[in-house]
Amino acid sequence: MANDLFPDRPVGPSDGQQGDIVRLAAWLIVATILIGALYVGQGVLIPLAIAFLISFALSPLVGWLSRVGIPRILSICIVMLALFTLIAGLGLIVGSQLRALSAELPTYQSTMREKIDNLAKQFEGPGIFDGAIQTVDTVQKELVNAVQDQDSDEPPAQRVQVIDPPGAPFRTALEWLTPAVAPLATAGIVLVFVFLALLDRGDLRDRLIHLLGGNLHRSTDTLQEAGKRISKYLLMQVMVNVAYAIPLGLGLWLIGVPGWLLWAVLASFLRFIPYVGPMLSAIFPLSLAFAVDPGWSMVLLTLVLIVSLEAISGNVLEPVLYGTSTGLSALSLIAAATFWTALWGPVGLILSTPLTVCLLVIGRNLPQLQFLDTLLGSTPVLDVPTRIYQRLLAGEPDEAIEIIDDVIEKDGSVTEFYNEHGIAVLRQVSEDYFTNARAEHRLRVANGMDELLDDLRQEYPATIDPAAVPRVACIGGKWEIDSVACEMLSHALMLDGIASMQRRAGVITSRYVDDLELDGVQIICLSYFSREPSRSARTFIRRLRHRWPDKEIVLALWNAPAELLEPEGFQALGADAVVTSINEAVRRIQHMLRPEDIKASQTAEAPGNDSDRVAALKATEVLDGHAREDLDALAKRAADVFDVKFAVISAIDRTQEFIIGQSKDLPGKRTEDGTDMIVMPRDEAICDHVVASGETLVVNDTDRDPRFAEHPAIQLWDTRFYAGAPLMTADGFVLGALCLLDTEPRKLDKAELELLDTMAADVVSLITGDDAVEPEQRPEEPASATVGQALPK
């Protein structure tokens, strides 16, 4: 009947939905098969997993020995022999401690019996459950007596005992040896696998890359990241365990607990077991302290020692030594421990973290398995603007304010929050306004944004005089969202010391323009989120020009097409300038209000150690041009690696900047001393901001940054993208910068920035002749609220 009434209306799932269902079913079947294979094949897979885990730990040492000239097979033998020697030595120590303890244990029996008797006496007397227990005992005795009376009328049954004949000596020996042979056989298999994994590391890597298939770059990154994370995990785990065991052994020795060395060694090994290991390592010394001391002081001191060391290890040692996490969230760590323990038993618990790290890395690098990164990873799956927007949609502005406070605390600036995240939130709001948003959603977002901005204005008030005449008027162009952006910009201008006012969007009529009250205002900034603001902006600007002909007009186009950002585009609308971000708007308005500051903004203040820095530069003698050929080659390599039009290496002395390396011939004034270097005054230096701050600077689009838009070198070289990494010596002096430049705007991700820092360190090594200083690792993305997990204990 439904088909008759609505013949064109589908009544079943669409083809796309059916495809999704089939794919989901296929993934479930594959997952079931894999889990079943892991369970059935654990006899082979467990030794393999242990072997690969050990090989990850030993591989860096084998690689180091190979690099110093020792053949690889000999390096493997040396490392494994050292490992055997260490294990054998620890075994001898543990064995001697066990023999000593076994000889002394009978002497502790009387102490234990006396303590237990004392505890029993303290708990004697009537209790709250005594009546119930007596009732149960009475009923039980009555039932036993009734059964015995019934059985007494029957003749007693004869009890027959079957005695097995004595087995053959060979069978008895096998029964005794089998439980001992199985672990030894497993250990032998593991050792063979470890040796082969270390010996054929390249071949195994090639086979894994072939199995991963697809993109060779992605497969290589997957293996490198997995190896790096697991190796670091194991190394840091060893360091943490040793740092825990040494003070534990010394503390137990001072307290007087017998076998203190045994308990320290045992704790260092048991702590490899997540969650359970630390508790197991604490049971043995506490039990012995209970048995040895007639009183309770030794038990209490031992307990205080263990609790203190756990607190120090968990809150001091692990954050310092681990540095960064495994990338797993707290929930995934617990779930992984549960899953692998259920699948492989106690060994699965030990291997749970490394195995789950492998799954995380695979999910991070293979698009088909990206859900693993979402399920297991600690990095937030939503960026900051999306998280704030979601909280507003849910009607939870308080949570959004908490996120904002965390971001501002990290960035240290409200203006930076508006620039990086605030406008991005509004951009998402504008994109959803006509598509996904309902009226209820729009109201929640509007009310939430009002609450957010009120809170930010109260928590971060501007220091400008409230009575100051506004010099800038920020006016919403068409929609409510345009007005909210104006509030952000106005607050940012006030924080920068520029008196401003804000006006909400309205119907563009002559009366509305007359009522704006713009006396004393020098600059009008119109805000638009529309992708096609031309018609509305042209009408608004025409009316403003008619009523206020002496005002300068800036268009803030947060979401406009690229053609409107070019001079011929926004000038056709009647505007004097265009901006696309909060930072650009603040800088552009500063320059329009104070044109004389344009030159000053292009040059940064000299660092406090500038005289020492210049002396360090002179000491390298790089300005005499002796390293020019090598520096040109490094600049050429940087340009090729990052696929930019050209790269330069600059050095700044007290008054001038010298281009000491370049990837291609560039125009500019040259030195006349035969070195043929491009030279420019320091107040026109392209890397002056990098030298002043000592930090990498990236300008995605120089046209959008007033510091660079009118920079002489940027204009001369027709540059739209700039990235500069400081050339910092081991003593902390910044000699200059390694700069990437391109004729088109672009961006660099975190990995590319780290690579740029590394290449800058190589340049410093060439200039100074010293070994390259490893640059500081850039901070990871903030983890979610449930993580920050270093590693499980």
Can you give me a brief rundown of this structure?
With 793 residues, the chain is α/β, with parallel strands linked by helices. The protein contains 31 helices and 11 strands. The strands form 2 sheets. Strands 8-7-6-11-10-9 form a 6-stranded antiparallel beta sheet. The chain has a 5-stranded parallel beta sheet with strand order 2-1-3-4-5.
Please provide a written account of the structure:
It is a multi-pass membrane protein. InterPro entries: AI-2E-like (IPR002549), GAF (IPR003018), GAF-like_dom_sf (IPR029016). Helix content is 62%, strand content 8%. It is an alpha/beta fold and 793 residues long. It folds into five domains: 33-98 and 183-199, no CATH class; 228-375, no CATH class; 382-461; 469-595, Rossmann fold, CATH 3.40.50; 605-768, GAF domain (Beta-Lactamase, 2-Layer Sandwich), CATH 3.30.450.40. The protein has a six-stranded antiparallel beta sheet with strand order 8-7-6-11-10-9. Helix 17 (397-411) crosses helix 19 (439-459) and helix 18 (414-432) runs antiparallel to helix 20. It is globular. The model is unreliable at 1-12 and 781-793 (pLDDT under 50).
Keywords:
single chain, 793 residues, alpha/beta, 5 domains, six-stranded antiparallel sheet, five-stranded parallel sheet, 31 helices, 11 strands, 62% helix, globular, disordered N terminus, disordered C terminus, AI-2E-like, transmembrane helix, AI-2E family transporter, membrane, GAF-like_dom_sf
